[in-house]
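Hello,

Following up on my earlier ticket. Below are the two sequence lines again, exactly as submitted.
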Amino acid sequence: MVNVASWGRLGSHAHELVALHDRARVPGQIAADAGGQGAGQVQGTGLAQGNARSYGDVCLNPGGRLWRTTGLDRFIDFDAASGRLRCEAGVLLRDIQRMSLPHGWLLPVTPGTQLVTVGGAIANDVHGKNHHVLGSFGDHVLSLRLARTDGSVIYCSPGDCSPGDCGPVREAGWFAATVGGMGLTGVIVEAELQLRRARGPWLVTDTVPYATLDEFFPLADASKAGWEHTVSWIDCLSGSGRGLFLRANPAAIPYCTVSERHTVRRKPRRMPFVPPVSLVNSLSLQPFNAAYFRLHQRRAGHAIAHFERFGYPLDGLHDWNRMYGPHGFYQYQSVVPRADGQAVTQAMLAAIKASGQGSFLAVLKTFGARTGAGMMSFPRPGVTLALDFPNRGASTVRLFERLDAIVGEAGGRLYAAKDARMPRALFEAGYPRLAEFLPYRDPGISSSMSRRLMGS
Amino acid sequence: MLELPRDHSRIVIIGATSAIAEHCARLWAAAPGAMLTLVGRDPGRIERVAADLRVRSPGATVRVMSGNLLDARAIRVLVDAIVRDGMPDRVLIAHGALPDQQACQRDLGAAFDALQVNALSPVLFAEAFAGHMEARGGVITLIGSVAGDRGRRSNYVYGAAKGLVTRYAQGLQHRLAGSGSPLRVVLVKPGPTATPMTAHLPQRGLAPVDAVARRIVDGAAAGTPVVYAPGKWAVVMLVIRHLPAFMFNRMSI
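Thanks for your patience. The regenerated structure is below:
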């Protein structure tokens, strides 16, 4: 048994680690493990884990088995004419984009880090800054192959598939259950993705500082039509709700005309140790946020940015999660309907300010008017607020209870991929398709999260 | 149209489904015009590795061969066939398997298998290639291990096999130096590396497989006789090799 923590580093738990590295062997391997005939000594359930970038407990299975998929990192086929890519589930999004960009293709949707696997991106149906234009990751998955612990393999796609394309199962239900399904329907072995034409690596960006939340919403609405990427950093301690609105579009600039120094291809740095206390604390945060706001206020306006630097700034600092000290940190991401989104956001920011806790990484964004491809997909029309909080024990838990009450009353939901503590009632209220999802679960698979929120 | 310089190096990888070898293949294939021959035991797996390389590096030519990697006669036939299609510039001999030491102590068959796959087979491949390449030159890279530097209770069967590879590489290097051959032999000794072979162990302290692959590819390019990967193991093993027995025997390693 080996101790494993998730990205939030809230705690480290004993797991039996099993490497999946040959996709042909995966169905037999997980079936043998589940039947107790595998190499493992642990009785009980397994769970696929990719690059372990989920903050909370969706990727943990304490006392059980983790099937590590990072060895399933092979491309299978890429058609540079159509942009269709088949690959194994452990391929990192970064490796896809670095392979496909020279052919003029990029992933349509990526989250704020490229260091996640395809399987993880599907299982959490991740979204990015362009949700209002392109939806979430699952919207661009053409098909996937799912291995179940009973030894069966299910090939599924969003719609009906043509005869010959499909394995024995043709229900679209498996696809909708697996996209956003938190890894609970089986082990995703491979997927076929539709990439999107890219003219080059560059983006035209525009930074607009705003002083209050009243300014954010008109900005977000006005930017929807003309800008592909929209996101905003918000100073969650300022009280006024000031922030920086960032928007960007792909630039029609050929490869070589912008200097390489704009790229993030520099050698990544590393947070070398875990400090004894969180570096993000009440002393550091207020001055840091104020300085950050003022710096970018001066840099407001248009610029050219490499997509890796714009989209994944933290990928350049390995192990940045160590910054929060030995007790780790929580992510709290909610989405509430747009109608009273402003009042709700205001109330949440007030609760955070009153608590004296808060974070540097606070992100506010409006989602587009589309529902996710999966039964349990997080994105829905509305306003999403994402924050991280150093774990300060009981006081942090009390703050979450206040925020839960606000989100619950507004009819919102929390993002399971980042959660480590939401109450079951809020989960059930936020995900109305839960009952439809449950029959698709694989009885040989469970996670810390599924036991917490679904009872098994 | 501008013609970019192409590097038509012929690269042969024995045991190409091993994680370290696969990552070396990814680096070598990135050179435009590279021609790779991947050799493995399982035709399906080796083809999956090749398909991946073709997507990553459309400019490379990748072919696969499979066969019995343990039998001396089969090794001779396989190597002769590879060489007939073109003399390789680089050969990487990478196959191996980390055996369970306890099982080797209980079951001589398991110990025999471990010695065969980790010691006998790799040196027979090296011997066969060296005979062909001695006159024209090139580089033969063998994968040893830090475990081959000193026998330890936790894995001395594996260590003994890798120790044999170490002595073999030394001898071959000595022979080639004596005859003035342009052929170089590189012995790489990886420390514990994050691969499927070590996936069940605590991952802290394991070297990333792509970093180890980078050391191997650079070591082959430079023709360095002995390469520790990562480099810190050169120092660690210098100490371990020279510890007096009364101290060493007390250590539980």
